[in-house]
Amino acid sequence: MDLSEIGNRIARHFVDEDGHLSVEPLGEGLINDTFLVVAEPPGGGRFVLQRINRRVFPEPWLIMENLRVLLSHITERQAGTDAVRDLRFPEIRPTRAGLSFWVDDEGAFWRALSFIPDTRSQNTLQDSAQAEEVGYALGRFHALTSDLDACLLHDTLPGFHIAPRYLARFDRVVANGVGASENAELRFALDFVNARRSVFAVLEEAKLPLRVIHGDPKLNNVLFDAQSGRAASLIDLDTVKPGLVHYDLGDCLRSCCNRWGEAADDSAKVTFDLDVCRAILRTYFAETGAFLTDIERYYLYDAIRLLPLELGLRFLTDHLEGDRYFKVEQPGQNLQRALVQFRLAESVEAQEKFIRNVIDARP
User: Fold this and answer.
1) Cis omega (within 30 of 0) on the bond before 164?
2) Strand 92-93 relative to strand 109-114, pairing
3) Other beta carbons within 10 Å of 342
4) N or C: which end of the chain has fewer CB within 10 A?
5) Residue 70 φ then ψ, to 5°
6) How many Å separate Cα 31 from the centre of its chain?
7) What sections of the chain are H helices per DSSP?
8) How many angstroms separate the CA atoms of 63 and 154, rounded?
9) One-character DSSP codes across 105-120
10) CA-CA distances (angstroms) from residue 82 to 78, 90, 146, 287, 300?
């Protein structure tokens, strides 16, 4: 039985009738298996079905608890508000038995979420107006959760975005001789990391305040209204947890300011687009200026430099370990992904003065 057939069987636990279901793969996620389910009436409607990767999320029920707390808080915050436009968020679709998830006979964890219609995602930015919408979406998310006690959320990914831990794992892999065979690209990547060891601990040593973070606010997790082009939603909420807003903002800029995309076929072409950075920060600060502290603002450049370096290190380590974490379509793909991120970090470093000026010019 292929994965789509399995998805069709599981999807029936989330509908009231036994009518025809259409189940198709959805998105390009590297972690979970995601499907769009279309149920014919009277069961009715479209929803998103996901099999959560339990190697990444060993306690997936905590994801659902976080999602319940988050959606309840955001719904209350946005209720009756006319001053700002709302963001739409997926709702939990229960099983026939009223459960928020389903565990199959093999122990796989499945959940269903409402589908947000009339929206589209992007893998690369189209223009500065779209960049401003991304900044608004992330800033609005942080504003809506700024008064939610981060301690109410479970840490579903302990160590996630804690860069010194990624460096320690990398060191263990290299010390054990894993992936020891080298070529010029791998040698470049290894040297790139070793030359920047001091960068990895900057945010953790700064003792910045814990807030609620999205955890993975890359460009294709922002949904745009299909008609107006305005930001409509911020999806993929599995990584919502206590953390530093720097992780989110740095990751967002890492994703959006690389106009060549994360799968660029020539890493040497990759650059950090300062105009996109300026547009995103303008609208982000407009939403978050009331609660971000001076110390948080001071370390924003360090986050913008660190996040591509961190992701590149994770890709590189996974390459050395045999591609255990990130899905690959051909050998060496994770090494190429790492090189794209390292070139992006290099471009950030070359533009440090200009990026700091953009940050200082905030509203």
Assistant:
1) no
2) antiparallel
3) 25
4) N
5) -60, -50
6) 11
7) 3-11, 60-78, 128-144, 163-175, 184-194, 202-205, 245-256, 274-288, 294-298, 300-321, 333-350, 352-360
8) 8
9) TT--EEEEEE---SEE
10) 9, 21, 19, 15, 31
Structure tokens at 197: 């060891």
Rounded to whole angstroms, the Cα distance separating 359 from 353 reads 10
Summarised one tens digit per residue, pLDDT across range 157-184 is 999 999 999 999 999 999 887 656 678 8
User: Tell me, what's the pLDDT at 262?
Assistant: 66
Mean pLDDT of the chain: 90
Spatial neighbors of 328 by CB under 8 A, at least 6 apart, are 334
Q: Give the orientation angle of helix 333-350 with respect to helix 352-360, to 10 degrees.
A: 70
- Straight-line distance from the first to the last Cα atom of the chain, in angstroms, rounded to the nearest whole number: 56
Sign of the torsion formed by the C-alpha atoms of 70, 294, 284 and 199: negative
Directed axis angle between helix 245-256 and helix 274-288, to 10°? 150
Highest mean pLDDT, choosing among 94-98, 260-264, 311-315: 311-315
User: Tokens 């009339």 correspond to what residue?
Assistant: 118
Longest dimension (CA), the chain: 61
- Contact, 142 vs 245, CB < 8 A? yes
Pairing of strands 102-103, 109-114: antiparallel
pTM for the structure as a whole: 0.89
Structure tokens at 182: 């080298």
Contact between 54 and 109 (Cβ < 8 Å): yes
pLDDT at residue 275, as a whole number: 95
Question: Looking at the predicted structure, is the pLDDT value of residue 264 above 60?
Answer: no
C-beta of residue 192 within 8 angstroms of C-beta of residue 216: no
CA distance 315 to 343: 13
